[in-house]
Amino acid sequence: MSAPRFHVTYRITPDDPRPIEAHAKDICIEETVEIPEDCVPKGHWEAGIVGRIESITPRGGSPGDYDVNISYRTDIANDAIPNLLNVLFGNISIRRGIKIVDIQLTPDQLKAFGGPRFGIAGIRRDLKVHGRPLATTAIKPLGLHARELARLCGGYSLGGLDVIKDDHGLIDQHFHPFEERVARIQEAINAANARTGRVTHYYPMIAGRFDQVEAQMAFARAQGCYGVLIPPLLIGPDTGFHLARKYGLAVMTHPTFTGTHFHDPRHGMTPAMLLGRLFRIFGADISVFPNAGGRFTFTGQECHDLAAAMRGELGGLKPGFPSPAGGMTIEKVGAMVDSYGEDTALLIGGALLKYSPDPEVSARAFLTALEAAAAGKARP
Amino acid sequence: MSAPRFHVTYRITPDDPRPIEAHAKDICIEETVEIPEDCVPKGHWEAGIVGRIESITPRGGSPGDYDVNISYRTDIANDAIPNLLNVLFGNISIRRGIKIVDIQLTPDQLKAFGGPRFGIAGIRRDLKVHGRPLATTAIKPLGLHARELARLCGGYSLGGLDVIKDDHGLIDQHFHPFEERVARIQEAINAANARTGRVTHYYPMIAGRFDQVEAQMAFARAQGCYGVLIPPLLIGPDTGFHLARKYGLAVMTHPTFTGTHFHDPRHGMTPAMLLGRLFRIFGADISVFPNAGGRFTFTGQECHDLAAAMRGELGGLKPGFPSPAGGMTIEKVGAMVDSYGEDTALLIGGALLKYSPDPEVSARAFLTALEAAAAGKARP
What domains appear along chain A, each with residue ranges and CATH number? Predict the structure, then answer.
């Protein structure tokens, strides 16, 4: 009875007239023993192996919805990310009307997964940037020669950007093979850093087959990259976090292929829980997400909940940077700084290409707008 | 211009009044170059690096929806599963009103991904079972001692089941550590096979951290397991297929954590495309899915489309078994055989525990019902 338990809050919108208790119990069974209730061995109930309903709170929605808190034994999920996700939202992902709105792991679980290795303070220390958001961009488009991508990065770095990541579509294509691209870009950034005396960090995209990703991580590390961009749902929810930790690389997460969680308030996980809470627990130093008002459909509230999940108190884990992106422009910098505050990695991608053909000019304009906005905010 | 291209049909339900062409072009750009249209280098359009709209077909829905066929250069996705998914449904997963309803890869892509290694014919040959569906079960519940799980498996095997898989919640928990569980279960099945002269195959669940899964595969292989159960979205869409191929193991896929694709006809992928077409192309010999009429919400039509995607002609790839599951019972065997026909791995899980405390008795009842249904179907 005393095995430690972690807690998940499911927002349930029942799609049949059974009482809410029956829906909640379905989850308790489906995510653990997965057998008819009357077949569950008596000892299983006593030992708490079945999920346990801790509270049911009506929300007064129409149709009626409820926040149901369910606890699970930690030793069912172990310290492995796939196992945790399997318990949180495995088979029930295929049922309707279940949304994860809160996840509370135990201190031991948080310690085992470990959270960000660098975090906001570590990245700021290494960039020597304080008192303003980070100026971040994505290098694109796919299909340019690696030489040309490196030229753009050199210019962005000379112009003062803090963080450059690969566009997530840059994988290992023959027009910019992974190793050539990463080596040339890091080289161009090193040269610019040497000229300016400033620091720009580069996060190459890590993706590919199971047998490719570790070699990519090792290569990025050997080239002196500060971090890596990983797409957890494409290469495996554990894979990128695990390898980045092994090779001592900072982690920026990308939301590609996650979006089906977010279309409907009745299904999936909230952006805050998947891209914020969980990715941070797993090790995200920076979490990229599509900002409200861009090309995507997150609401302002969802974005702020996500930012809070990255930065708020969480059992001693380091905070990480939220990185609003997806259709952002230099004109929006002021509003974004007002909205997200200082500890943010503001990401402007394609709009820098549009602003000027010279990447140094675009970068300088971005940085100027950012510093002005941050200074304006700092003054009364 | 002559680079080979593959084709995807997106069902688009526009959520703003722009013309359908604009929505379709959004996808072409978002999934490739991901920059403002007027920044795309002219050579990129000419080289076909941007996705290309091949056709737009109004469906007459309300609100208006359209089937839009878009082609992409194969060398953008390469032969890596994460890259292919990134192009098919990466960032656009976070936009609304886009559903993948068809995917047509090129012959070279199909050859590179390879499809099922064993397929229906290979599994039948090795089981020596012809002319009827396979009798399949899941060993459960989580939390029993490995010894007890092995006892159940021995009984199921004596009773004549063809295929036994782990319940997908059985990972590497201390009450049934992976190696102990797999060794004991395979041993019990070997003993039963020796007694009956029949063949039962065992598929242990492979999940865990990046650094654990390969050792699990190697262990399953060393114990003589015929195949493995893999959860592609939990361990990485490529991981399990890649390793099973490396170790010569048959692949059964599990749909855990995939369900957010299926809640709404306007978002995600259809079950047929994700659990059928793609999983088969990636290597699924058997694809488990939640049958209509059980605890989950797939419709009969969705289930049959999925079965067709597993078994239909697909550029010379072997067909695989669809495996309807999720709340099936012995009473439903006749209806399931009528509905799915012979080349099906009928999966009854918890209901066997409910049928009798003696697994051999339950298995025999299942097999008897299956043989009767198959014989009835064979006769005029």
Answer: 5-113 (3.30.70.150), 119-378 (3.20.20.110)
